[in-house]
Structures are given as C-alpha cells and as structure tokens.
Amino acid sequence: MEKIINIAIDGPSGSGKSTLAKAVAKHYGFIYVDTGALYRTVGLYIQRKGIEPTDKAAIVEALDGLDIGMRLVDGGGVVFLDGKPVGDEIRTPKSSMYASHVSAIPEVRAYLLDLQRDIARKNSTVMDGRDIGTVILPNAHVKLYLVANDEIRAKRRYAELLEKGQKVTEAEVLSDMRQRDSNDSSREVAPAVAAEDAVYLDNGALTPEETLDRAREIIDGALADAKI
Ligand code: DC
Questions:
Q1: Which residue lies with its CA nearest to atom 6 of ligand 1?
Q2: Whose CA is nearest to atom 18 of ligand 1?
Q3: For the domain bounded by 6-225, which CATH number is listed?
Q4: Distance in angstroms (rounded) separating the CA atoms of residues 34 and 72
Q5: pLDDT (tens digit, 9 = 90+) per residue, 167-217?
Q6: Which atom of ligand 1 is nearest to 116's Cα?
Q7: Widest CA span of the chain, in angstroms?
Q8: Which among 70, 90, 156, 184 is the best mutation to test ligand 1's pocket, defined by most ligand atoms within 8 Å of the CB?
Q9: 150: left (phi > 0), else alpha (psi -120 to 50), else beta?
C-alpha cells in the first residue's frame, strides 16, 4: 500500500489557508480537508436550533442530536449535516461568529476530533485549520503555519464576501476578524498557535501561485529529508 502522507496547514482566518491547501492537495493528488467547515457547520446547527452562540451548556447538550459527517466527494471532504451537504450558508459573517464561539468549547472540539483523525488515517490529506499541527495530527509529515497581517487578510476576506454577494463593509470585516483572531488565539483549549515544528510562511506580499511555489519547496524538502 502506498504510504499515507499528512500535511497540516494552520494559520489565522484570511491567511489563505484554504486557497493554498486546495492547490497543494491538487498538486500532490491528496484529499483536501477544510476543518473550519466542521466548526462552521456545528455553528449552523446551533443557529438553526435557536441556541445563543454564548450558551455553552445548551450547545454541549445539543451535541447529542448532532448528525454531522464528512464524505469524500470528487477528491475532497464535504461536510454533511443531517445527511445533506452544507453549502455557502456556513460562510456568512454571522456563521463565522457562531463558529468562533462553538470552537472554543472543549466538548465540541472533542466531538470533532476522531472525525478529523479518521480521514487522515485512511487517506493522504492536506488538512487546514488552527490546531492541525498541534492537536489533530501532531505527527503530520509537514506542518505549515501561514501568516499575513490582519489588514491584508481582511481585504482578501472582504473581496471573497463581495463576490458571494454579501453586504458588508471592509471595516466590519476587519473588526470581525480582529475579534475572531483574539477569540481563537486566547481560548484555553487548542488555541490557534503554530506547532513547534511548523514552518512559518508569510504570504502577505505573495500571490497564491507564489505561495504554492514556496509551500512546494518546503514540502518537497521535508519529504525528501524524511526519505519519503
Ligand atoms: O478557518 P475558518 O475561518 O473556516 O474557521 C472557522 C472558525 O472555526 C474559526 O473561528 C476558527 C475555528 N476553527 C478552529 O477552532 N479549529 C480548526 N481546526 C478550524 C477552525
């Protein structure tokens, strides 16, 4: 059997993780797993149930009725809620805020842990998130930590939201992003920090193509060093 290879890509929102992870997965023929989509889907579920994003006890209780899974569709992991694939409804600013709140709850993280590890155990994956290199796949063959300053990240996210037809201002996106950065990195459980053995990649001044080229150099070097 071919060796299973796992690549972890972590970093704050808007750092270009998903763009890079998709491109890396395509290049190496691996499966792309967007773990943020899992937290976003739990957030959507909580929102649909009418539970406040800050009501931790109610959220933990509601996990009993949560039917979430990830299936491989066209070489990528797609999140299903109640048997149906989720779409762009998990990408609104409101969903982002729900996701940020639910992702700070240890029970939610524990609930999603095996689901993420199972996929990586069975398939060569490029997994993006906040704690992939530190918690989910501490033995990943390569760990990248993508960074870019928050104004650049907010501009990118704003452009994405505009393209999806959402009515937001750039200032709102920047302020939401700062709030979420602070929630994500200061929470007690699995804070968004780089693993000790992660390679930092600042792509603030790079195009997506240049970011991919740099990532390929790092990945090819790490795999060659590990004689893979
Ligand atoms: O990457 P994203 O913006 O789609 O993530 C949505 C939220 O989920 C974000 O607030 C951080 C959280 N998240 C997390 O805590 N751990 C992950 N592995 C992925 C996302």
A1: 36
A2: 129
A3: 3.40.50.300
A4: 12
A5: 899 999 999 999 988 888 888 888 888 999 999 999 999 999 999 999 999
A6: 18
A7: 52
A8: 184
A9: alpha
Question: Any residues with Cβ below 6 Å from ligand 1, and which?
Answer: 13, 35-36, 39-40, 99-100, 103, 129-131, 180, 184
Report which protein residue has its CA nearest ligand 1's atom 20.
Answer: 36
Q: Compute, in angstroms, the gap from residue 122 CA to the centroid of ligand 1.
A: 23
C-beta atoms surrounding 84 within 10 Å: 9
The span from the CA of 54 to the CA of 38, in Å, is 18
Distance CA 154, CA 70 (A): 28
Residue 1 has pLDDT above 80, yes or no: no
pLDDT band at 75 (very low <50, low <70, confident <90, very high): confident
Measure 25 CA to ligand 1 centroid, in angstroms: 19
Among 147, 157, 122, 152, residue whose Cα is nearest residue 137: 122
